[in-house]
Amino acid sequence: MRIAVDAMGGDFAPEAIVEGVVMAAAELPEDVTVVLIGRQSVIGELLNKHNSESAATIEVVHAEDVIDMGEHPTKALSQKPNSSIGVGFKLLKDKQVDAFCSAGNTGAMHVGALFSIKAIEGVLRPCIAGFVPQINGGHAIMLDIGANADCKPEMLAQFGEIGSIYAQYMFGIAAPRVALMNIGAEEQKGSLVAQAAHQLLKDSRRINFIGNIEGGDFFASIADVIVTDGFTGNAMFKLGESFYPLAKQRGIDDEFIAKTNYESVGGSPILGVNGNVIIAHGISSPLAIKNMINLAIQQVKADAYTKIAQVLA
Amino acid sequence: MRIAVDAMGGDFAPEAIVEGVVMAAAELPEDVTVVLIGRQSVIGELLNKHNSESAATIEVVHAEDVIDMGEHPTKALSQKPNSSIGVGFKLLKDKQVDAFCSAGNTGAMHVGALFSIKAIEGVLRPCIAGFVPQINGGHAIMLDIGANADCKPEMLAQFGEIGSIYAQYMFGIAAPRVALMNIGAEEQKGSLVAQAAHQLLKDSRRINFIGNIEGGDFFASIADVIVTDGFTGNAMFKLGESFYPLAKQRGIDDEFIAKTNYESVGGSPILGVNGNVIIAHGISSPLAIKNMINLAIQQVKADAYTKIAQVLA
User: Fold this and answer.
1) In angstroms, what separates the C-alpha of B216 from chain A's closest C-alpha?
2) ipTM of this predicted complex?
3) What is the CATH number assigned to the segment(s) A124-270?
4) Is B231 on the interface with A (CB under 8 A)?
5) Domain at B124-271, CATH from 3.60.10.10, 1.20.120.450, 3.40.718.10, 3.40.30.10
6) Residue A108: is its pLDDT beyond 70?
7) Is B171 helix (H, G, I), strand (E, B) or coil?
8) What per-residue confidence (pLDDT) applies to A56?
9) Quick one: closest CA in A to B245, which residue?
């Protein structure tokens, strides 16, 4: 298995990325190769600093350019085909790697996925799925958390189906409980889009729809899949993630709250595309990068995107 | 000053409401009268149980009917003019009380306000404002947190103006920092509505607009007024409120997290109407009711709704 990692993406790249990769490799089995993409000389120097003795192999693939965090995604990708993100998607498209991960420009990752490996046929809009820790253990998957700020009811209904398949194969849950984030339990509650999405989700035979949940149910172990638009989802997900730094600042050390730390999962998959693409926070630390790689490996094993394609095709 | 309280509204009414009123009255000055509205015999019996020795007076106004939590607001209000909510709004409209508070049917409270004291002229849509505790002390006011699930940019821009006036007179801040809840800092980020609202807020000369904030800034003491639609606002507000029960369940006792407990403020005002209307959680405890009454008193003193009418007229 080959996991590609953008060495140049993220606020603390390439140092934090290379360090995270070295940390990950130290614990990975022999059959995993981590492919670092970026400026060979810089990465080589950093790798030399770390006394890397791991079973897993670290490979470096050279990419001359870097897409900065502030650059316009589409423009940057077409002007910089030799950027680490451009090269990563080329490798992914050519099946030279099984997954591509980056803490760099999120928009460029999203657009790059759409342009290279492309959306799965039948998928209206790929989305970003966030892992939300649940109070009784495990995670719920929330989608969309930011790719689509404006959603139609049909998109939300499909997020429910995509999330359900993902939860099935990633978490091993036979019939994941799919819920719609809304502002009341009754089906006539909420925005016009939420009301219409509720009906579509209720009518879908592909999922186990349990109805609406509310903001207070976010961590409540009520749902395995939380469906929402990319605006509400992004705002809620970031609020949920703020629990950890807030608690830390207050001197609170708690096992559950620690799971709301962005580092603990390390990344969010783009779902609905023909491949494994994982994006991470710009601020990603080495620990976050390590966990992002583990998430990628888990996702490759689960083969979730092939299952999504099989169901939705 | 006369504060009316719906004795019959809430999951634990009338017991919890009467107990909360007795608690509040024990600490209130002489010039405050709390007017309990509901079935006289029931309230009388409950008041007799409490050894009420307070400077403030508790009055009872009889209302034969009760609007249940699940009833359709408009239908219930027209069919039950003698409900506690119906009577409360009659008193408020006739200026026999200075504020009306209820933990009952939120929809009926909202519709009741629109039908009786009515929206302030020039206000597109009244909204519900939530108090969000801030890490460096005090609260931000977030609006809308649930009255309007679908919002137009003009509504959001006006929420910013209404919230700014409210924060000015309630918190004594000369130029409250108004922020738009969004999914990125840049002004072109977010849903189409958020993008358009950003421009309107930026152009408004009535407010001190500081730009977009994100979900992670919810408690961050960055803004005094947080503008959002009633869907996102409701979901985020309830998620924020869930921090306290979650922490409590984990055995965490923290002064700041305790402020995220819904009981600590006890209510949320409906803003943009010609009077002081405060709604509280259905699950309100006596402590929540007590704090709701204190909020109402503070709001009557600040005379915020008159100021809003003066600015927007």
Assistant:
1) 5
2) 0.95
3) 3.40.718.10
4) yes
5) 3.40.718.10
6) yes
7) helix
8) 72
9) A216
Q: Is the pLDDT of residue B267 over 90?
A: yes
Q: In this complex, do B235 and A181 lie within 8 Å of one another by their Cβ atoms?
A: yes
pLDDT-based confidence at B55, cuts 50/70/90? low
Mean pLDDT on A293-311: 95
Under 8 Å CB pairs connecting chains A and B tally to 122
Tell me which residue in B219, B236, B243 faces A235 most closely, judged by beta carbons. B236
Paired strand residues for B277: B100, B270
pLDDT at A238: 98
Q: What is the pLDDT of residue A52?
A: 63
Q: What's the CATH number for B1-119+273-303?
A: 3.40.718.10
Indicate whether B52 pLDDT > 70. Answer: no
Q: How far apart are CA B176 and CA B140, in angstroms?
A: 9
Instruction: Please give the Cα distance from B188 to B174 (Å, whole number).
Output: 29
Q: Does B262 touch chain A (CB under 8 A)?
A: no
Give the minimum alpha-carbon distance from A91 to chain B in angstroms, rounded to a whole number: 30
Check CB contact under 8 Å for B232 and A232: yes
| Closest CB from A216, A249, A254 relative to B250 | A254
State whether the Cα torsion A96-A98-A104-A109 is positive or negative: positive
In contact, A206 and A164? CB cutoff 8 Å: yes
CB contact (8 A) between residue B231 and residue A150: no
User: A185 in contact with B at a CB cutoff of 8 Å?
Assistant: no
- 10 Å CB burial of residue B186 (0-12, 13-18, 19+) is exposed
By the CB < 8 Å criterion, does A246 face chain B?
Answer: yes
Taking residue A307's Cβ as centre, other Cβ atoms within 10 Å add up to 15
Cβ-nearest to A219 among B218, B229, B242? B242
Tell me, what's the pLDDT at B313? 78
Residue B150 has pLDDT above 70, yes or no: yes
Asked if B190 is an interface residue toward chain A (Cβ–Cβ < 8 A), one would say: yes
Homologous superfamily of A1-118+272-303 = Isopropylmalate Dehydrogenase (3.40.718.10)
Residue pair A305/A271 in contact (Cβ under 8 Å)? The answer is yes
- Establish if A240 touches chain B: CB-CB under 8 angstroms: yes
Query: pLDDT at residue A55 above 70?
Result: no
Please list every residue in chain A whose beta carbon sits closer than 8 Å to the beta carbon of residue B140. none
Residue A169: pLDDT over 80: yes
Q: Is the pLDDT of residue A142 over 90?
A: yes
**Domains A1-118+272-303 and A124-270 alike in fold:** yes
Q: What percent of chain B has pLDDT over 90?
A: 95
Q: How confident is the model at residue B33 (pLDDT cuts 50, 70, 90)?
A: very high
Delimit the domains of chain B by residue range: 1-119+273-303, 124-271
Residue among B19, B102, B48, B53 at smallest CA distance from B295: B102
CB contact under 8 A, A214 and B235: yes
